[in-house]
Design a protein that fits this description.
Structural class: alpha/beta
Mean pLDDT: 95
Distance between the termini: 47 Å
Helix content: 25-40%
Order of helices and strands: HEHEHEHHEHEHEHEHEHEHHEEEHEHEH
Low-confidence stretches: none
Number of helices: 15
Length: 354
């Protein structure tokens, strides 16, 4: 069974809910799509779960009625906001989290721990948890109302909502951009069989690296979204030549990594490639709504040597990266590839770099 998503959103609107503060999750893909489509509730995409939580707190304290939606791994990012803001100040609003499962040999190893321990984590924050009813929509709304007035987190199971497509006006057309695979193939040819360490951020970037960069030294980071640059900085600080393959949503999640790496620009050999497809591909392809961000200017202000122009063609990337040294940033606009397989768990689960 699954709840009728359109009716679900309309019932939330009837109850006075005003905003959805979201870090996208595939379990809530259709809820997100309907919130984007529906003009009577505002979709607020957030850089991280902690940001979503803080925005919702501000909305609630100012008289709004927000809901936060995240995936289970992101509940950890909320910990400080929950325990040092919401709890001591008595601020409540619905927090809805997916509950991602794990079954060997699923390579999504970032979900393994919380697949069994999510309720324990929620309880440690001083909250109760309840699984949202996905058969009776009135019960589900009552549960969300309880979350609005108590320290309770609602847990969303897989396939809890009926399918909703984004309206055409909200869909991205990336057909004029070169698919990311073409850039990855070029990197594979330039750096095959050498010691350069490639770090792929969580989601489709790492999956596509596995498919298209068979001859390079790759680390596929399955979780820890927003941490790829800092992971690469740590490796480069210990003498590795590193190229980080990141994404636009990943870039904004923990931007403190940029300023930290910039402090040591004269000591490291690190290039950060931002593959910008303007979307959250692995959670439904929704727009990241980040066209207002000048990624190059931010990286430059943090101390990176930047390539001032956005890269659109493979030849441009090849030219800019083949002899790169020091701390560099390259902004690449790219299109969408077909879904590629996850790397096998034996390849993902390594604890040291080559």
């Amino acid at each position: 069974m699954a709840l009728n998503t359109k009716l679900f959103i309309n019932k939330l609107i009837e109850k006075g809910y005003t905003h959805l503060c979201v870090v996208p999750c595939s379990f809530a893909q259709y809820v997100i799509n309907e919130a984007i489509n529906n003009p009577n509730i505002e979709y607020l995409p957030s850089a991280s779960e902690a940001v979503a939580c803080s925005i919702a707190a501000g909305l609630k304290m100012a008289g709004g009625k927000p809901i936060v939606i995240v995936q289970s791994s992101g509940v950890t990012n909320m910990g400080s906001c929950i325990t040092s803001l919401l709890k001591p100040y008595g601020v409540t609003f619905p927090i809805l989290s997916s509950w991602r499962t794990y079954k060997y040999p699923d390579s999504e190893i970032q979900h393994q721990h919380l697949a069994t321990e999510l309720p324990t984590l929620i309880n440690a924050y001083g909250y109760d948890s309840q699984i949202i009813d996905n058969e009776n929509i009135d019960n589900a709304i009552e549960q969300i109302e309880l979350c609005d007035t108590s320290f309770t987190i609602g847990v969303i199971k897989k396939d809890s909502f009926t399918k909703v497509e984004l309206d055409s006006k909200h869909k991205l057309d990336l057909s004029n951009y070169t698919p990311r695979s073409k850039f990855l193939i070029a990197l594979n040819n330039l750096f095959k069989n050498n010691d350069t360490l490639f770090i792929g951020t969580t989601g489709n970037t790492a999956r596509e690296m596995y498919s298209f960069m068979k001859d390079t030294n790759n680390f596929y980071m399955a979780g820890n979204m927003g941490g790829a640059l800092s992971l690469g900085f740590g490796a480069s600080k210990n003498g590795k030549k590193v190229i980080v393959c990141g994404g636009d949503a990943e870039f904004v999640m923990h931007m403190g990594g940029l300023s930290t790496a910039g402090r040591y620009k004269d000591e490291i050999d690190l290039t950060y490639i931002l593959f910008d497809n303007e979307s959250n591909k692995s959670t439904g392809g929704q727009n990241t709504y980040q066209s207002h961000i000048n990624y190059i200017a931010i990286a430059k202000a943090c101390g990176f040597d930047v390539f001032e122009n956005i890269v659109y063609k493979v030849e441009e990337l090849e030219q800019k990266i083949k002899d790169s040294k020091g701390l560099n940033f390259i902004h690449v606009k790219c299109g969408i590839d077909d879904e590629t397989p996850r790397p096998p768990i034996e390849i993902v689960r390594v604890s040291t770099f080559k």
